[in-house]
Amino acid sequence: MIKIFTVEGSDADEALRIAFNDSAQLGADSMAVASGRKTDSGTEIDAAALTCHR
Asked: Do residues 49 and 22 touch, judged by C-beta distance below 8 A?
């Protein structure tokens, strides 16, 4: 299963931590970053939570 989501943090480190935490809450085995960009309020990351087995 693949779940695509977007997170935003005050900086790149915070956005990455949020992405990993959101993936864990979804029960994912791993997380992949599709793209990242700076915004006026910080950094936004598009990511995919990957679940390989149930």
From this structure: yes
Q: Which residues are paired to 32 by β-bridges?
A: 48
Q: Say how far apart CA 12 and CA 36 lie, in whole Å.
A: 8
Q: Does residue 13 sit in helix, strand or coil?
A: helix
pLDDT tens per residue, range 4-54: 999 999 999 999 999 999 999 999 999 999 999 999 999 999 999 999 876
Q: The tokens of 49 are what?
A: 């939570």
Residue 15's region, left for phi above 0, alpha for psi from -120 to 50, else beta, is: alpha
Element (H, E) at 20: helix 12-25
In sequence order, the β-bridge partners of residue 31 are 49
